[in-house]
Amino acid sequence: MALYKTLTVGQTTKILIWKIEESTSTLKENIVLSTASSARLQSMKSELHQKGFLSIRHLLKEVGYSDLDVTYDHYGKPHLKDGKYISITHSFIFTGIIISEEVPVGIDIEKHREKILKIAHKFTPFEAYKTIANVDALIRKLTIVWGAKESLYKIYGKKKLLFLHHIFIDDFKFETEKTTGEITFNGISSSYDINFLEFEGFTCVFAYSK
After folding, report:
1. What pLDDT does 133 receive?
2. Do 86 and 164 sit in the same domain of this protein?
3. Do 173 and 199 fall within a single domain?
4. Which of 76, 77, 138, 74 lies closest to 112 in space, CA to CA?
5. Final residue before a domain boundary, out of 54, 78, 101
6. Which one, of 176, 168, 209, 210, lies nearest residue 195 by Cα?
7. pLDDT tens-digit map of 84-141
8. Chain-centre distance for alpha carbon 165
9. Radius of gyration of the chain (CA)
10. How many angstroms separate the Cα of 48 from the Cα of each of 37, 40, 90, 108, 171?
11. pLDDT of 154-165, one tens digit each?
12. Which residues face 185 on adjacent strands?
């Protein structure tokens, strides 16, 4: 099995990342799915999505959970039955989960792609990044910003939140591997710590309440 990386934040928050290298049949081994999850898996036409779904169940198993311990609310946000906080992500050959005993958490993995240059204006004030002349660095930075906003969106867990108008990410340097962010919606603001790491042309961003 391909547990790729495990990270611990403080004493109560853990991140696990899986690199998908197995066949679908291998990933199905030793995994118990609920009736709803089995139906969801069978409805997936993409083998990559199937592998992502199954590998996440292996990540859950790594920390003592099973598919039966996860429920989803009507917004699609996952919850653990024991009350701990969880967030889930999948991007191509990588999946990840973050679990915290104490604070709401969010995680996102994104592949570095030039496509982000075309959509950047939809999720962040793009003018702030025009001083970055190196295209690769610009893609990396925008990917971190997108991942950070996606992570905060997952923490909020409800619709109507707009990346451009309601989620704000403070500027950062690559070498610090961290920043902060804020959600401001309906006159209420909340602040979050954000960490990121890069590997094999991907970026993983995770956020948690301050």
Report:
1. 79
2. no
3. yes
4. 138
5. 101
6. 176
7. 999 999 999 999 999 999 999 999 999 999 999 999 999 998 777 777 879 999 999 9
8. 20
9. 17
10. 16, 14, 10, 17, 34
11. 999 988 899 999
12. 188
**Non-local CB neighbours of 105 within 8 Å, separated by 6+ positions:** 13, 85, 86, 87, 98, 99, 155, 206, 207, 208, 209
CA nearest neighbour of 59 among 88, 35, 83, 80: 88
Can you give the residue range of the structural domain that contains 125? Answer: 108-209
Kind and range of the H or E run holding 39:
helix 35-43
177 with 164: CB under 8 angstroms? no
- In terms of domains, do 80 and 128 share one? no
Q: In this predicted model, what pLDDT tens digit does every residue of 45-59 receive, in sequence order?
A: 999 999 999 999 999
Picking from 58, 4, 3, the residue whose alpha carbon sits closest to that of residue 32 is 58
CATH assignment of the domain containing 18: 3.90.470.20
Determine the angle formed by the axes of helices 35-43 and 47-62, rounding to 10 degrees: 150
Amino acid present at 36 = A
Please list the residues that pair with 205 across neighbouring strands: 108, 196
Asked if 54 contacts 24 with a C-beta cutoff of 8 angstroms, the reply is: yes
Residue count of the chain, please give it: 210
